[in-house]
Amino acid sequence: MSRKSITTKKHILKTLLANLPAGTPVTSTDLAEYGVSADLAVYYARAGWLNRLARGVFVRPGDSVSLAPSLLLLERQLAGLHIGGKSALELHGIVHYVRIRPTLHLYGWITGRLPIWFTERFQADYHRKRIFEETPEAPLHVTRTEGPQTCTRALVSSPERAFLELLSEVGVRQSLSEARELAEVTHTLRASALSTLLKHCTSVKTVRLCLNLGRELSMPWVRTLNSKQLPLGSDKPWVSRRAYGTLVLKA
């Protein structure tokens, strides 16, 4: 490649990076759309015009990687990726106590792993979770965040979906005691949204645990749920034996 061509493409690169919001990572595919090939991106990284985060991922030199644009990038790589469970509840203000350094809980449709460049900067975990009848392109009750949060514009579960995602983890990565504590502050959950989600829920444990906790804690939303319309499985109790003890959920 001639020096003139490199200079021209460097100008294109500088224009592109100048228009990027601070802390936004870009991929080789993004750069290729502006005429910067993968080989040229590597050349620019070696020359200090790009900071290489990982193979095929770059950021503007001197920038600290920001969470929000990083999540938007990961959404393109992991189908159905969204903030869910306990993290989504916290974003919606449903917390039992404030955690000093909370883990960001991300859920997705496919098996995968968060890239090292992301987990080195943000304390996060990823779970493949399919507890609803839905498609990754149109997940139920998942919307984009707005406002001043650090993850603005990222996909996040509604409070009702986040609560069910949390309950689905009980006995696996989530303690029943903490789930009950969080259930105590779910007075504002919308019964209509919960009803829709529960009707499409494929986890009998999650459906029963939601109803059991709602009744036990006399939550307002449980009074309008019609259990006869929900997938509760057979009439027999749902039983799970774990290290912490035995969990028995009646229909």
Question: Can you tell me about this structure?
Answer:
The protein has 2 domains: 3-59, Arc Repressor Mutant, subunit A; 67-249, no CATH class. The strands form 4 sheets. It has a 3-stranded antiparallel β-sheet with strand order 1-3-2. A 3-stranded mixed β-sheet has the order 4-5-6. A two-stranded antiparallel ribbon has the order 7-8. It has helices at 3-19, 28-32, 38-46, 67-77, 85-91, 116-119, 159-168, 176-183, 191-199, 204-216; strands at residues 26-27, 51-54, 57-59, 82-83, 104-108, 124-128, 142-144, 155-157, 238-242, 245-249. With 251 residues, it is α+β, with helices and mostly antiparallel strands. It is elongated.
Describe the structure using short key phrases:
single chain, 251 residues, alpha+beta, Arc Repressor Mutant, subunit A, three-stranded mixed beta sheet, 10 helices
Task: Describe the structure in brief.
This protein has 251 residues and is of the alpha+beta class.
What does the average pLDDT come to?
Answer: 88
- Main sheet characteristics: 3 strands, antiparallel
Percent strand equals 5-15%
Q: Can you write the helix and strand succession as a string?
A: HEHHEEHEHEHEEEHHHHEE
Write the layout of secondary structure elements.
Elements: H1 3-19, E1 26-27, H2 28-32, H3 38-46, E2 51-54, E3 57-59, H4 67-77, E4 82-83, H5 85-91, E5 104-108, H6 116-119, E6 124-128, E7 142-144, E8 155-157, H7 159-168, H8 176-183, H9 191-199, H10 204-216, E9 238-242, E10 245-249
Parallel strand pairs: 5-6
Antiparallel strand pairs: 1-3, 2-3, 4-5, 7-8, 9-10
Helix pairs in contact: 5-7, 7-10
